[in-house]
Amino acid sequence: MADPTHTPQLRGARLQRAVLDATLARIETIGIDHVRVADVAADAGVHETSIYRRWKTLTRLLLDALLSRIDTEIPIPDTGSVRADLVAFMSDLIRFAETPSGAALIRGTVVSETDPEVAGVRREFWTRRLGASEEIIRRGIARGEIAATTDPRLTMLTLGGLVHLRITHLGDPLPADLADTAVDLVLTGVTPR
Known about the structure:
- The protein is mainly α.
- It has helices at about 10-30, 35-45, 50-55, 60-75, 80-95, 100-110, 115-140, 150-170, 180-190.
- Helix 1 (about 10-30) packs across helix 6, helix 5 (about 80-95) runs antiparallel to helix 7 and helix 5 (about 80-95) runs antiparallel to helix 9.
């Protein structure tokens, strides 16, 4: 006869999802600087050793959690048009930024005085995320839609930074036409003449 108080041990994909969800919830509620493996383990209903076995360090766990959420919420589109890709990317970023969890995650990835390991997570997160989004610009260059001299990182920092700055520092509402307006403004500067 099964013990009704026994909770089955999480393994594999279920363990990973439970831990990543618990980590993201912690980031959203208390900020990335205050997340601790013991608290994540308790929230996820797993042992700390299970987390360390899979992720090795808190830094790897934080990075994996942030990337999993962002990759799901803000995919890198490939429509065959640089303008359509940028508008879709910006629209998804804006939609996500306007949710409570999106705003919290964006604020949680802003650099602050912190432990160097967490600062490293932030830097690696942004480096990897920017690298992925820069592919939109590289494809536009390859198709001849954008000047070959266009800097993919600068372009994506300009667009994404606009949303992040408004969320983290200005607290401004994001205009409904922001994606189209910002993309058109940037494309005016990078379109071959």
